[in-house]
## 1
Amino acid sequence: MDGLVTPGLKGLPSDSRPREKLLARGPGALSDGELLALLLRTGIAGKHVLQLAQELLDRFGGIGGLLHTGADALKAVKGLGPAKRAEVVAVLELARRALAQELQQKTLFESPQAVRDYLQLQLGARPHEVFAVLFLDSQNRLIALEELFRGTLTQASVYPREIVLRALHHHASAVLLAHNHPSGVAEPSRADVDLTRTLRSALALVDVRVLDHFIVTRDHAASMAELGLL
């Protein structure tokens, strides 16, 4: 429980306290574990906050893996109460919203890495396949991201008509397609290529361009356009 804690950051020598270190030397001087310890503030029974932070990083594959982890997965961590889970999930949501705001204010081609980061935060850790569409305005700025289909994705399970209707609803000039590979392999399959061509043809009928199709994993977002497959 969050109430049963060992000493938190105040129990450390002053030169080892993450907060003092951050204020004196800047956030870049802190390790991932120290930054996470600042967020968590206190440990749990029998475990100091820095130890708890490092164990969370080890369990979920580093800070990137932790930020891709949902509230349900965090429930499995013994002693990690709802307050601490909420803090971690809140940081993830803030990161998503910050990236979405950036993509709404700039053309996507001004910040291609932000597009990849946004898609990885949205889709990278999903245990099942999700097909999403980013609807763009005439300046290639983000209007909205919608998750339209789930499950095993094939031409039979992704409906072009639905994507066309949503594009018209948003008055989109272009779209970016994206779906995740829970296997962790960010390589387009033959089916992915065929599906992209089908959707490109359908959207062309209403003068909406398909700019790219990203295959997303926890660690990577592969661009079919960059691979010459679009």
## 2
Amino acid sequence: MFPTFNYSQPEEYRFSHDSVFLARRVFEYLQEKKMSPNTAIDICSGCGIIGLDLLFHMRAAGIQAPKSFDFLDVQSAYQNHFQENVSRLGPVTTTVQFINGNYADISNSNLANEYDLMVCNPPYFSKQQGKLPTTDLKLRSRFFVDSDLPSLIEFVSRKLSLDGSAFILIRNQLEHNQDQLAEVIKLCNAKFNVTQLEDIRGTHVVQIRSLLTT
């Protein structure tokens, strides 16, 4: 429905359309609310689809983009694709960097102290759910291997600025008796507002904000 650009990505693992839909939804939200985040991060970024697509939309609309945008992923195999995608995106005023690291390591010195905007399309499955992929790249992209959902929410709670918003895709695994949306609400433990904005092909778009945010 909306133009974007031709991404570089590994042959063995292609991003899902959930990522581009999330980028567009976040763009529309920022535009509607007239929000101008200064610092941003794409968690579990892979080759940068969500964050770079968001910058693409912001540039096309002529609205102010974040001054800095970090892209955090535990798999270094994505870095060359990320750099190629930055080149394909073309000129932006935002300083972008790929950080090869785990969100469980909150002390990573390459990270900003806090972020006004967070976007994330995390793995949807635990290793107990379904047949595991044969390649390491696909395994770690689709399944929680290097960390888990509680660690992800802890990262968000520690790094989200007071006026910031985090937008995360959450897919319930009800067939495995796993309600991830309920788990996120419980993990936020009345410290944050958790709002389900909509569904993208059966996946929840969840916004997390400070209780002090209006």
## 3
Amino acid sequence: MRIDESTELTLSSIGQVELGLGTIYFDSQATTGVGALQVSTTHGLLRTTGTQFEAASSPEALRVRIREGSVAIQRGPQDPELTGAAGEQVLLESGGGAELTPFPAVDPEWSWVIALADAPRIDGRPLIELLDWIVRETGHELRFADPAVELRARTITMRGDLGNVSPMEALDVALATTDLDHVVQDDGVVLIRMR
């Protein structure tokens, strides 16, 4: 979980938090089997599993942006659930209105989340692990120019330490000493190719 500045948050128990005011981001890291999360707010209850999402609560509204997976939101015990899926934003207004709109995984509004990402240890690890981490943190999609490039990314073993760099800076640093290069396409794809 990442917590934005000026956020009021109470950890109720394992897997349950109360969000007063402010913004949180949660990544269940579904590949590692980390479980679900319930977020209580004055606007309703959020239930998630296997997802990446941001929840922002204010006196006026609850905004939920889903990057991966889905989030079920229930205003009250008798109200039906509203579900938002990957690439969507759900806005619940305090007056009762609800709006579901598209929200891309690579929108600049995710920048605060990306800025809080901790670079993984790479020494002795295959390049493909770093590439997977980069696209998970940034919301991009990873593609290879051809199967030979993908095989190359799986066989390169990295050395050293990335230090305190952003995910996209980590990509530049890691590829600088290889025969691989990348381009970020307009559709959000990070294409790995030979130099």
